[in-house]
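Recap from last week: sequence in, structure out.
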Amino acid sequence: MPTKQMIILSLAAAPDAESGATGCGVGGACGSLCGGEMTARSCASGPRVPVLACQDALAAAGFDVELITATSDREIDDVLARLDGPIRADGLTWPTADGEAPALIVAVEADSQLRAVVRRMVRRYAPPPSKRPKDLSDGRTLPDLPAIGVLPMSTQTDLADRLGLPREPADVSKAVAGGRTRRVDLFRNDGGSITVHGALLGGVDSTGQAAPWAGVVVVDDTTLADGREPILACAVANANGYAHIDEIALAPQADATSGSITVAVAVPVITRSRFGRERVHIEVRRASGRAVSVTPRADLPFIDDGVAGVLTRKRSWWVEPGAWAVYVP
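Predicted structure tokens:
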């Protein structure tokens, strides 16, 4: 039987009492939504209608439901602590077995908020390299993370949509109550963060067109860009349809359950007609593998799960196959 306890976690913007930082889960939980209309909605006082509808559906099915709004990473951690198993003989704390802790549902406005919660899970449960236990799966740096019920709060295309997860509160509650889960990949990177959906590297110029940049992109042993030619965009994708350029899907075959990273690099290619006229078309080079590194020649803007940043040096991502899970119908 599934657990009789449920937690619906929402993220809201408020100062962190300890660090003084702000944001929907400090450190980029609300990402590019901070200060915008969507954040204003998500940070309004009191639970929003989809949360209440999900609560009502679960309560009607006999579950005890607790609503929690986290305003900082520390408060997210307090919720995740309730998913801890007993301390192991080696001193590590890993998640408890399925069904022995409250089921967690996260109400999200965008991928950035989902990433905030999964990132805190990774920080909580991933052992340091010096304490890697023998029972950790090969090819993984962390144990299986607890399942999450995803309650989308907007209609935009996001990871929940790409994974085919339910969007209506009643359907989400039914899926979580059913207890069926699907393991999903995530990416870790050497910058100390994670990616659940994808990252898009590259910016635009004053006209809104992709601004060329130079850098080296290597997937495992395959070089997609050697730094000697302009790049319009680079997508590091965990699910299909993550990014487009000129209506071209950069990573249409990316699969969040494949155990691999899909990388696409878009470069402009100049050809000449027989009359000598130059034409420019976009060539997309794709590869999949265990890891990818991107080394920009200069500061490079990027968006990772909806969170904007600037890459100033080499960044590497690697896949953690099936590291977390979602509730599915």
